[in-house]
Amino acid sequence: MRGLARVVAMAAGLGLAAVPAAAQSASAPPRVLLDVGGTLLGGGSLGSTDATYTTPTGASFTLFSTAQSWGSGAGVTAHLLIRVKPRVAFEVSGSWTRPELRARISGDFEGAADTTATETVSQFLTGAGVVVSLTPRGKWTPFARGAVSWMRHLSSDQTLYADGVAADLGGGVRYAWKNARGHVKPYGLRADVWMSVRSGGMALAQRSRIIAPGFSASLIFKL
Amino acid sequence: MSRSPLQVRRRAFAAFAMLIATAAAAPAVVSAYLTLGTTVNGRTVMTRWTSMPVKYFVTNRSIPNVTANQFQTVVAQSFSTWSAVPTATVSATFAGFVNAEPVRDDGATVIGFQRHDELERTLGVTSFTLDRTTGELVEADIFLNSLFDWSTAAGGETSKYDVQSIVTHEVGHLLGLGHSLLGETELRPTGGRRVLGKRAVMFPIAYAVGTVLDRTLQDDDVAGISTTYPTSQFLHDTGSIAGKVTLDGAGIFGAHVVAFNTKTQAMVGAFSLTADGQFVIDGLTPGVYVLRAEPLDDADIASFFDANSKVEIGFKTTFHPKLVTVPRGGAGHAVEIKVTRK
Predict the structure, then answer these.
(1) Which residues contact A86 (CB under 8 A, 6 or more apart)?
(2) Nearest Cβ partner for A117 among B183, B199, B323
(3) ipTM above 0.85, yes or no
(4) For residue B279, is pLDDT > 90?
(5) Looking at the 3D structure of chain A, how many domains does it have?
(6) Which residue, among B209, B290, B296, B333, would best test binding to A if mutated, counting the most A CBs under 10 Å from its CB?
């Protein structure tokens, strides 16, 4: 949560310093928007690995097999949107989720019961991207979005961390329910869906890249 | 320490027996695999050489198919295998040929062949002399049993045991390592055990004749020697898993715990070495591990522990339901592996 707090604080600070909200007209789309909400990141398979011994002929002798995967993880997210052209905005974002790293263990030579061993990991993502707004339909504004993020995984006992990267491509919609005035006023809602390629981080397998969907819903504030 | 092609012969060596007796009572467990230890002033210390290089002699005696020079060359290669481990500070020097027998308390470390008809299942033996005030090794002798047929051929020879493989195992003992349990065996109808598969040179039962696989150290061997003679970089770069194995809520002695890194496929094992079931697996690459606890049922208990030790083998092989993370230079939270009766 501290990581998220830093992201939000940084985002709010940037927004306030960049554009005084009072300079905007009531009818123009706001230049700086901050949204905070919940997110769900999908998981995926990381492949399988066998624990093996070597037979007298040099062949592999499987002691047990494992299949590794990331589970989905829910958490919180925030985006700071800074409009640089009428339909183009630069965005910085951050999220914190708690996916589960899993190893399904089976086929033990000595008959140990099949088990799924797990570790819940804190996953922090912070990145930057571009949002292109499409033609508004009333109070609904659809958009497309692409972003690249730096990713950190932290073990539940906070003794092990590993870093990676993520790239997102997707879109969503903003719903402006009113023309808010002044600083930090609720402005509307935002929903995003995307596909994410995540690579690196805490790895359970030689392959660490997964492609997974993501979803978020958040409350927009006009800064 | 003896090594058998068929079955480990019951042969108790003072240093090894001391390790078990003291480790079972000491509050701090001896580290991963089995390293040899002794009690000094009431605390368990690792039995090891305190100065390098280890100076060794080779018996100037040939046997059929292996000359003394061939034997010395292979012994040097075996020492080189251990000294090549980059995370350990091990070195050895050949001091010359001698007529002295190995296994004599003469202050000289001697390696050679001896014929022991009574050891019909023992390929090699390592014996030690140590300073009981410090735990320091002062002499270690190795003999290979010339009752068997031996070969130094580069690729091994059918129906002959590979000298380099067996010497590499015995040199591991000479340097202070005990046996590893990373292997599976089956009982032979005629007695003894046959290796189905293994993942450690220090497994107590040798591969069959003609096999040269034990010339190459495995992850468990490397972790063991590096923990015994660590470089500063090794201590900085690797971590540990510590915990205990319990049965019906009580700790058990002698449970074998294996840490498996699903990313690197490395396997390193250790035993619970206290009455309350504590174990430590050192020398692990930082990462995420699967933990598996199993009873000591793939080799003779006497090749690991003193015959009087109360080794618990009446439990089912069990996986820990949590993945365990290993940080660099330390250990994560202690784990408890709960096993159930067979």
Answers:
(1) A29, A133
(2) B323
(3) yes
(4) yes
(5) 1
(6) B290
